[in-house]
Write a structure and sequence with these properties.
Helix content is 47%, strand content 4%. The protein is mostly helical. The longest helix has 16 residues, at 222-237.
Length: 288
């Protein structure tokens, strides 16, 4: 069974991913070049079928997406991992196609396909660090795709359907990346390159993400619950990625106007810093 149910776009003689010259066609119908194939399948099918993990390696799609976004951002100070030094970025039309495929796969009824697609998608919400010394930019932009409505909705939907012990790994795979997700605006050139994907304001994306946790927390998994608590704490404390100040503005100091979020924050503080917990909640015991 194929990991996607939609028909890929047909491109005569051209790779579905990079638009370079294709040399063969996957069983799903996508044409691909020699850079975007694995085990005689295209990258998307290889991800959905678990071929990368069966080979003992990591999926390369999320890194390829981030690299492509970074190349369009034109921030020369973004720190590109050594493993991608010789990798070629995709054109933005290719990024659109791949992100769209991951979003569709995230709704699969096959738990394995859903897990692999949403964990790859969650990785794209992060931005590589920049060494830009300029104080003029204030690092206002990022490459993380959390501002894209369809990406955010797909991840929150997958979280809602991963509240059981059996699907704990999927929930953790998403939550671990959301802890360091970038809520800042995308670089303008990235937005221009994604015309088919709508991007919301920072207030909307912060509200949607943390209000969405009301439908997720608590889960049947202690570990997933802990990750939710750490997500709220980490994003509240980090004022560089855009969420912290907005959370405080919306929900008050220590999120006191949002009882469930305040509870998660309190437990997140307990998990992270005993000294801070005593400072913020003097005389109180471990929260339950």
């Amino acid at each position: 069974m194929e990991p996607t149910t939609t028909q890929p776009e047909q491109q005569e003689h051209f790779c579905w991913f990079c638009e370079g010259e294709a040399y063969t066609q996957c069983q799903c119908g996508r044409k691909y070049c020699k850079r975007h194939t694995f085990a005689d399948r295209c990258f998307v099918c290889a991800l959905g079928m678990g071929l990368f993990e069966q080979d003992g390696g990591e999926e390369p799609i999320s890194d390829l997406i981030i690299l492509s976004l970074a190349s369009v951002a034109r921030d020369p100070y973004l720190v590109i991992p050594n493993k991608l030094t010789n990798a070629r970025p995709l054109p933005m039309t290719g990024v659109e196609r791949v992100v769209g495929a991951l979003i569709r796969m995230s709704g699969s009824k096959d738990p394995g396909v859903r897990h692999r697609s949403v964990t790859a998608l969650a990785k794209t919400t992060n931005t590589w660090p920049t060494l830009d010394p300029s104080q003029l930019s204030h690092h206002r932009f990022g490459t993380g795709l959390l501002p894209v409505n369809a990406v955010r909705v797909a991840l929150l939907e997958a979280l809602k359907h991963s509240r059981t012990i059996a699907l704990e790994a999927t929930a953790i795979g998403i939550l671990d990346k959301l802890r360091t997700a970038d809520f800042r605006d995308l670089y303008p050139r990235i937005v221009e390159g994604l015309p088919s994907h709508k991007v919301s304001s920072i207030g909307t994306r912060v509200h949607d993400t943390f209000a969405g946790l009301d439908d997720v927390y608590p889960t049947s998994s202690y570990t997933a619950n802990e990750r939710c608590e750490l997500l709220v704490y980490d994003q509240y404390m980090n004022r560089q990625r855009g969420a912290g100040a907005i959370m405080e503005r919306m929900y008050g100091a220590k999120l006191r106007y949002a009882p469930l979020l305040a509870r998660m924050l309190k437990k997140g503080v307990w998990h992270s810093s005993y000294n801070r917990f005593n400072d913020w909640y003097p005389g109180e015991d471990e929260p339950y």
